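Section 3.1: Structural characterization of target chains.
Under the original work plan, the team committed to producing a structural model for every single-chain target entering the pipeline before any wet-lab resources were allocated. The record below documents one such target. The sequence was received from the expression subgroup and is listed exactly as submitted; it comprises 450 residues.
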Amino acid sequence: MRSSFLVILALILNFQAYSQGSFILKNKAASHKIKFELINNLIVFPVEINGVELSFLLDTGVSKPIIFNSLEGIDTLEVHDTEKIFLRGLGEGKPIEALKSKRNLFKVGDALNVNQTLYIIFDTSMDFAPRLGIPVHGIIGYDLFKDFVVEINYTSKFIKLHDPKKYRSKSCRKCESMGLEFYNLKPYLEAVIEVNDENIPVKLLIDSGGSDALWLFEDENKKVSGPESYFEDFLGSGLSGSIYGKRSKIDQLKLGKFTFKDVNVAFPDSVSIRHAKKFVERNGSIAAELLKRFNLVFDYGRKTLLLKRNGYFKEPFHYNKSGISLEYGDVRLVKEEQTRNAGKYATPRTDVKGSTPIILVTTFKYSFKPAFTIVQLRKDSPALRAGLQLNDVILSVNNKPSHEFTLQEMIENFYGRDGTMVKLKIDRDGKEMVFEFRLEPILKKKSPSN
């Protein structure tokens, strides 16, 4: 009887833990490791919802999981307890319609939550796949971080979820522990920037779901303003629409004892960040291009973040010097040449190695490959001046077929040294054309003072 009572009690306690909308590790494990892909500085990893495996971004800037309705067959998720609501985020548009759903089963590796609330957005323009080159169905943040000590290893590309009650931090003299502050369930830290030769303390949202390095909100009272040298650019998409602003560099950023120089920075326009400025103490965001330079340990319970520099730390900050923004678009039919051994009865060309004849034949294989489409061209950029246009489909870069690149590899061609020649073959409405241009610096360096 006693053993039966203990089993029933354990089941009740476990159910109560789940029913509170919390994640717990199966079998009372101390920790669990999950591998991820790092794409355009963003962490993409598998999340299972109601038995359906999806790909999610790990985004410290969101409070509840969000699913984007670009997923075919979303009804297979069998979401529960739904109600219609409106969400607002960054961007210049209006709030967007969403569906709020409760009591969903989430599985992240060995971490389970049987009472998870999520939001489903029906705006089909909210789709990360074209910009990242792989399907991404949603984002998750606070609900995972609140229940675990979360270790993010950018170099080995894994997330490790630790039971806070069993976690013991390791001694690390080269690490820096920083305090966290929370507003609307989102984490903030204190930093110091150097702008126009002046050191300014700032409070920054930690945004692992943003691929840039640093965003700053212009503020005359705080003396935060864009440097004289900048260029106008599309900064990204928020829940409420497109975000535009100025891109530049600041002289220096200090995170505790760590210092970065010549840091890429974006200054979003005031309309796009109107909603974000409801937290008046916020001065901007520190995002993934900076975060990836550390291996991190988030401990929301103790309100601390541990930073340990990694192999990305000394990488310079570069901008796309071509002016081209690409998307992974529709598929196109590709003809690929193949060479194979035809066997001893074939009649084509014969090469001889010693006394053994090797008979080779050339054949062609046709297959459908994703196309890389130009979706934006920066004003006065080398690519625009060379004659490239929106909706041009790139067939090759420097004579290498585009289908042999991933989206990430394709974009890296535009971040080379000043003066590097780029040769693009493109398809424009069925006509093949070739364009050439040289990469050039975007920001003019300040001349030394007399």
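The longest strand covers residues 356-377.
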